[in-house]
Amino acid sequence: MSQVDWLSQLVQMITIAGQLEVRCTYGAPWRVAWAQSAAQEIPFHVVLKGRAVIEDTEAGTTRELVGGDIVLLTGGSAHVLHDGSGHASGPTYNRRGSAGFTLSENEGGGALLDMLCGRFFIGRPHDRLIREYIPTNLVVRAVPGYGEEGRVSASSNLANLVALMREESADERPGGYAILNALSSALFTLAMRAASESEQVPAGLLALAGHPRLAPAISGMFTNPERSWNLVDLADLCGMSRATFMRHFQDKLGRSAKELLTDIRMSRAANELKKPAMTTEAVADLVGYRSVAAFRRAFTDKMGMTPGQWRRLASKAE
């Protein structure tokens, strides 16, 4: 199994959509603030040209971004972007484009910035899965180049996607709104792939998937969560002893394999429970529980509500 398998399963399971909201073209000095996002939303920023400093006011972190950098704030925390000069910024002028996003400009005469801003929308309750296993502020670089064995790298594919987003957001052509939102959705998946293949893989699920010896266990759990996996089975997939597998897994993810498997099962169960024809018993069996009572306990523990409560809530929302 390849890394693409687990990533495809994850994206299909969490039902993610993207939306481009603002294209910022500023001259320094400039400053923009973003409020705390809703639970099912992840803001993203793509620096096309220039330089920006991002401050996460909740995490207390500051980082410089340059052209080609893409940042995903999986925690949805309030944050500020600015030019880093410390000078007071002037007013911005916004106009709505026909493609559905806002064009924001200012009159600053300093260093130029060109940046795309938007957000990803994740179906409930899968935002919890993303926030627990993906770094709070994930920065990925989109640069042309080749990976191993002369293959086009994920970062290069990401750069091509960003270039297409830049072109579509520059011209008001028919279908622009639909194309930009489709590209924004693809941006999430390509960013995850590029992060897992980078030399400095961030902690969490991406570090686990980027580990060549541990990746088979991730693919196995995502592809067949209903299987009665035990530590010996997963260790065998990775060609490791049980003790070595447990140590490496915990070190990379910060959680046990059992915890990850349970989270995958409950996320899949949440999707299945939305289907009127699926009984709780059938869903329990589908995600690997032979005991309905055990399934109900696990679901309630992870989701904070019973399967029946979730089914009614999801039905009402739809």
Written account of the structure:
By secondary structure, this protein is α+β, with helices and mostly antiparallel strands. It has 2 domains: 3-201, Jelly Rolls (Sandwich); 211-317, Arc Repressor Mutant, subunit A (Orthogonal Bundle). The protein is built from 12 helices and 11 strands. The protein has a 7-stranded mixed beta sheet. A hairpin with a 4-residue loop joins strand 4 and strand 5 (61-66). 38% of the residues are buried.
Low-confidence stretches: none
Q: Could you tell me the number of beta strands?
A: 11
CATH topology of the largest domain: Jelly Rolls
The residue-averaged pLDDT reads 90
SSE blueprint:
Blueprint: H1 3-14, E1 16-27, E2 31-34, E3 41-49, E4 51-56, E5 61-66, E6 69-73, E7 79-82, E8 92-96, E9 102-106, E10 112-122, H2 127-133, E11 137-141, H3 154-170, H4 176-197, H5 205-210, H6 215-223, H7 231-237, H8 242-253, H9 257-272, H10 280-286, H11 292-303, H12 307-317
Parallel strand pairs: 1-9
Antiparallel strand pairs: 1-10, 2-7, 3-6, 3-10, 4-5, 4-7, 6-11, 8-9
Helix pairs in contact: 1-6, 3-4, 7-8, 9-11
Q: What's this, in brief?
A:
The protein is α+β, with helices and mostly antiparallel strands. Helices cover 43% and strands 23% of the residues.
Give the key terms.
single chain, 318 residues, alpha+beta, Jelly Rolls, Arc Repressor Mutant, subunit A, seven-stranded mixed sheet, four-stranded antiparallel sheet, 11 strands, 43% helix, globular
